[in-house]
Design brief:
about 325 residues, mainly alpha, Non-ribosomal Peptide Synthetase Peptidyl Carrier Protein, Chain A, 13 helices, 2 strands, flat
Length: about 325
């Protein structure tokens, strides 16, 4: 009895010890849950290095070059105007670099010259120096005279290049000039769609061109089909005898095709008859009788003309 009691007491002590251990683990887990979880490590995004715009040496193309530079600024997230102006100034060469150096020297010497402090001022100053008003006027004139003489895509590229030289032109004027230079059928289709912007007009023109290409391909395929049928039909008609051949065979039943044997093979030759004189051995365009008849006809016509000229009185004879 005493041994059983001692075993029970020992078992109870072990359970109490395990219970105490479990309580300690629960307390540690609650303390860990109360603490904020550490922030995950940021994932490094892949870096993309856009190509730098080419250097500008002055002259034509300043608007296009400025657009390329602005696209580079957006790609690298360059927002500050001072940083934009400094970067663009590093890309200037030749006359453009000389213009910027003189501008900076005049601003340092207090010569009444103010350097542009914003990107808009820098763009305006550069365009005023290297894109005079006459170039914009020439671009407008060329845009009004531009017509679709080649493919549609080439016309669109030429028109967009001219539109970049006239940035102050409104969207409605650009769209009207673009539609006016299209081919008549394409222009009629685009105007029927009533576009509101130049982009809409270009989209409608490309849709019309794609539809026209598909229609022409279908017409060519249908033409090949009919030509093939006509070819085989003509071949069948050539193989069968014509009514004229049947009539000539019945009328000239006594004439038989002449057969000659050459090197052991039989070859059949058909005796042709002239449609003009009815004689065998030649055709109508080789007929000597017809040629002689034509010569007689021409000579009689010439004699009649000479006789008519002799009988017609001249002006001097009428006066007398």
């Amino acid at each position: 009895m005493e041994a059983t009691l001692e075993q029970a007491l020992a078992r109870l002590a072990v359970l109490e010890q395990e219970n105490h251990q479990l309580q300690l683990e629960l307390q540690a887990a609650a303390a860990a849950a109360a603490q904020p979880a550490p922030a995950p490590a940021p994932v490094a995004s892949p870096t993309v290095k856009p190509p730098k715009p080419h250097n500008y040496k002055g002259g034509k193309g300043v608007a296009t070059w400025l657009d390329k530079v602005e696209q580079y600024f957006e790609a690298v997230n360059l927002i500050a105007d001072a940083a934009r102006i400094s970067f663009a100034a590093l890309l200037l060469e030749g006359p453009a670099s000389t213009w910027w150096s003189n501008l900076r020297a005049g601003a340092r010497n207090n010569a009444g010259i103010v350097l542009p402090t914003t990107w808009a001022d820098f763009r305006t100053a550069l365009c005023d120096r290297f894109q005079p008003v006459t170039e914009a006027d020439l671009a407008r004139q060329h845009m009004r005279k531009l017509a679709q003489t080649r493919g549609l895509q080439a016309y669109i590229n030429d028109f967009q290049d001219l539109a970049l030289k006239v940035p102050e032109m409104d969207e409605r004027t650009k769209m009207d000039n673009f539609c006016f230079g299209l081919r008549p059928d394409c222009r009629q289709y685009v105007r029927q769609q009533r576009p509101h912007t130049l982009k809409d007009a270009i989209t409608f023109a490309l849709c019309f061109q794609a539809t026209l290409v598909e229609d022409r391909a279908a017409e060519r395929a249908l033409g090949r089909h009919w030509n093939r049928q006509a070819h085989y039909g003509n071949q069948e008609r050539r193989d069968s005898p014509t009514p004229m051949e049947l009539g000539s065979a019945v009328a000239n039943n006594d004439q038989r095709p002449r057969r000659e044997e050459r090197s052991g093979d039989r070859q059949t030759r058909r005796v042709f008859k002239c449609y003009a004189c009815g004689q065998p051995g030649h055709r109508q365009f080789e007929c000597p009788n017809r040629k002689a008849q034509n010569r007689r006809l021409r000579s009689s016509t010439n004699r009649a003309q000479v006789r008519c000229m002799e009988e017609t009185p001249t002006d001097s004879e009428e006066e007398n």
